[in-house]
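ok trying this again, last paste got cut off
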Amino acid sequence: MKIGLYFGTFNPIHIGHLIIANHMAEHSDLDQIWMVVTPHNPLKQKSTLLDDYQRLHMVQLATDEYPKIKASDIEFKLPQPNYTVNTLAHLHDKYPQHEFALIMGEDNLNSLHKWKNYEVILEHHDIYVYPRMNSGEINEQFVNHKKIHHVGAPILELSSTFIRESIKNKKNVAPMLPQKVSDYIDGSSFYKK
């Protein structure tokens, strides 16, 4: 099985995340998408980042009706700070029967050369890139690279930061969130301060 790994803090997960994940599941050769919840780095200030398991729970709520999309806590069990190359090595050891690929926005592709051991990642894993509004010029070494696949997913300018700020300012964000996630946030004090 070929699995696309979509990393994020998902603080909170919103419809933009789901639209991209579902587009990758339905319009690429990926069999499944794993939404990998990035744990809080204990060395960084927590600020508005919810607890790891609360964010994982929201991803589970958001994806439970999508059979090709799964929530993953794989990085919760790995040493901090997390490096993608280490996560991929761990997944390869744990699930040797699967092939793993990365899903990222064009903006992240532009900084891929700064990632730890990015050459190793590119040698062993495909990268599926979705367009972003303001991603700038793509680094020349990644143009026409055989491991990088551009997928024409819808461009959505929706951010978790905007949603958190809107909740704090008592704005209605229900249309931006999966219904179960919206209900979960409404029943909590998340992002309200």
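PB: full thing came through this time. The first strand starts at residue 2 and ends at 8.
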